[in-house]
């Protein structure tokens, strides 16, 4: 499946959900692991704001990529953010969406334009 790099330099990204382990199997509670490194994966919620439009998205990051000092509502940086379209069939129903993954999540500063408006 195709992976699409997401250019984030013009976006404001705010943390809306604290990092939590990504669950692979809800019945067993098994935590998802990276297929290559075997490292545990985490999910975060963010609001992605660019050109006056916003989207709430969930992003997967490796556990080692979760920086200290993250605060809900604060701006974050998502280096290496990519989007991957997916589709599957579950109980006879066609499902599809976009999965987001980043190399890390780190604290960031508010853009100058946001601070000037306050």
Model description:
The chain has one domain: OB fold (Dihydrolipoamide Acetyltransferase, E2P), CATH 2.40.50. The radius of gyration is 15 Å and the shape is globular. The longest helix has 6 residues, at 112-117. The protein has one helix spanning 112-117, and strands at 4-5, 12-21, 23-25, 30-31, 41-50, 53-62, 76-77, 82-90, 93-101, 106-107. Helices cover 5% and strands 50% of the residues. With 118 residues, the chain is mainly beta. It has a six-stranded mixed sheet with strand order 1-8-9-6-5-2, with no helix packed on it. It has a two-stranded antiparallel sheet with strand order 3-4. Strands 7-10 form a two-stranded antiparallel ribbon.
CATH topology, by name, is OB fold (Dihydrolipoamide Acetyltransferase, E2P)
Order of helices and strands: EEEEEEEEEEH
Give the strand line-up of the largest sheet. Answer: 1-8-9-6-5-2
The total of beta strands comes to 10
Tally of alpha and pi helices: 1
Named CATH architecture = Beta Barrel
Relative strand content: over 45%
Looking at the chains present, what oligomeric state does this protein adopt?
single chain
Quickly name the level 1 CATH class: Mainly Beta
Largest β-sheet summary:
6 strands, mixed
- What is the approximate shape? globular
Rg computed from alpha carbons, rounded to a whole number of angstroms: 15 Å
Please report the distance between the alpha carbons of the first and last residues. 42 Å
Indicate the percent of residues in helices. under 10%
Q: Give the tally of structural domains.
A: 1
Question: Uncertain spans, ≥5 residues at pLDDT below 50?
Answer: none
Structural class of the secondary elements?
A: mainly beta
Q: Quote the average pLDDT.
A: 91
